[in-house]
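Fold Annotation — chain and its backbone
Encoding — discrete vocabulary of local shapes
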Amino acid sequence: MTSASQSRPWDVHRLPCAEGRIFLVTGGNAGIGYFAAEQLAGTGAVVILGSRDRAKADAAMVSIRSRVPGAHVRHLQLDLADLSSLRTAVDRLELDHLDAVVYNAGVALDDPPRRETEDGHELMFGTNHLGHFALTQWLAPLLSAAPAARIVTVGSFAARSERLDLGDLQSTQDYRPKRSYGRSKLAQMCFGFELDRRLRTAGSTVLSVVAHPGGALDSLTPSRPPVGGTTLGERLRAVPLAVVVQGKDAGAWPVVRAVLDSAVQGGQLWGPRVFGLRGIPRREPVPSHMADAAVAARLWAVSGELVEADPDLGFR
């Protein structure tokens, strides 16, 4: 990256060149993950879509290639709800390094009943948080082999109003789907900040950054056939909401900046400029409940026990 590009204000429509770099986006076949993958592909980087659904990943790659001529995209079969499959999935990457991973994939349930993963964990906590926590251990050697790799955890605005219940992380005593989702995203964000603290202590060159999309609605999102689209009526009804929120294409901007911007530092939080809900990406102050090192350390310890991970997740 030239000094001129470093001094130029960040432009979401003129991203820096990333040719030769390799990025993995979990859940890159839909939503925020798809648009992050599309935008990253436009930089010349190799973008790997981590997805358990091959057909949806194929559709996403068709869409990206139609909009980014010459895009370097590929699929990785990845199921974060099946912890035993993650090491094999990483082995299938057949890479000697990885420049960044975006932890975007997630499950959001609106209604009971409570569901569990193959490993017996509550589905949203198990997939959104524990799956990425466990994946980090297997990606650690590839990230450490890159000159300055990044782990970008995609959080949620919903996590601001939640608090972790360390005595009931998996909602076995009181299951409320929307609250459990918000807490799973809060767990992810706390993990992202704690991971960077541990990486700095270990003297690692890898950075951990947290980003969130603000308020991102399907009805304000540009159509991307065959991935998805909205009707004209849906788009028209959503026009008044654009004053407050945005589409998922814009929701991906803070994530992409967290991956690419050389000025971004570990332990930072990035989100939309306007009330944290819409607009161009900016750095945000980390809310105190997300920055609580004591809570994060307890979450880390419990998570490590649940997934039977190395205490350092492979970073030393």
